[in-house]
Amino acid sequence: MKTDYLIVGAGFSGSVCARVLADAGKTVHLIDKRPHIGGNAFDQRDAQGVLIHPYGPHIFHTNAKKVFEFLSRFTTWRFYEHRVLAQVGEQLLPIPINRTTINQLYGLSLTEDEVQGYLETVREPRDPLRTSEDVVLNSVGPDLCDKFFRGYTRKQWGLDLSQLSAGVAARIPTRSNDDDRYFGDSFQFMPADGYTRMFERLLDHPAITVRTGVDFTEVRPQFEGSHLIYTGPIDAYFDHCYGPLPYRSLRFDHQHLPDTAQFQPVGTVNYPNDHDYTRITEFKHLTGETHTGTSIVREYPQAEGDPYYPVPRPENEALYKRYAELAETATGVTFVGRLAQYRYYNMDQIVAAALKTAQDLLDAHAA
């Protein structure tokens, strides 16, 4: 089959690449093994008509104006600032930790100026910051670490904080003010018509052919001569020749509560120390929709299943680098995305990486 590019994976990485290349006059054949586009960001209405995210909550946020402007071609936006509470004992407390968290937890009345001084008295200085445990103890000390982070991490990753690279915990700030937003980015919005509708518009181009429910290995021989853009797990592409890269998976328990207008006060509540699940998300907070009932999802991290998160540990990074060396020598194929680059990317980082990848391919072709 004659086409300029075969793209494997119809999530953000593959779809953004497809659109940039198509806009530049290239023909693109985009496939995905799932029966839908959008990857993990795919959304749909449940049986009761509530818009939900089958693969867990996806909240868009970015400081990259270029990324926001690109996606704005394909959606209007609903302003939304995500807020998360953590259940600690009988209390629901803001996370990331802020002044309110500390004052309510310990019965204090610290001012903003006093919060940092308090944290200085409880923190355990660590240098260098090699692990996530180092990061958390260096920032907030052992008690806050145990109440908010250690148990959650064990559930989320199946590992202790001391076994994870520093970058995981470094994603979560600690604040001395009352800012209770989960993200601090300049652009915080949700696609007004949902992610799936945004993907439909993104892929609505005469030069893009989309096929879902397609296994890459079965159709690959049909596209000899087409440049391949691969967004799946890099170890799978190379038949796990160096052994499997560790990924963390998730199981989702979706539930509709027919006579409950609102289940919880914010979009997501974390459970760092109780229950087998890590968090509950209520979708109506995210979408702004109204309904007589409400739909929620509980997330249960697990070792087996579809890969969601690369596991950030030094030994895993070393194994990935062996696969990355193979990727550099492979001809006619480009790797991009969270699974292909073994990176714990946010959505906006994936879009930025895809924009750069597509432009690099166009520049190389023009050279």
Automatic annotation (TrEMBL):
Alphabetized, the UniProt keywords read: FAD, Flavoprotein, Isomerase
Q: Which SUPFAM superfamilies match?
A: FAD-linked reductases, C-terminal domain (SSF54373), Nucleotide-binding domain (SSF51971)
By its UniProt entry, which Gene3D superfamilies does this protein fall under? NAD(P)-binding Rossmann-like Domain (3.40.50.720)
This entry's Enzyme Commission designation comes to 5.4.99.9
The coenzyme or cofactor needed here is:
FAD
Q: What class of enzyme is it?
A: isomerase
Instruction: List the Gene Ontology MF annotations in alphabetical order.
Output: UDP-galactopyranose mutase activity
Q: Which family does it belong to?
A: Belongs to the UDP-galactopyranose/dTDP-fucopyranose mutase family.
Protein name as it appears in the record: UDP-galactopyranose mutase
Tell me the organism: Roseateles amylovorans
Taxonomy-wise, where does this protein's organism fall, top ranks first?
Bacteria, Pseudomonadati, Pseudomonadota, Betaproteobacteria, Burkholderiales
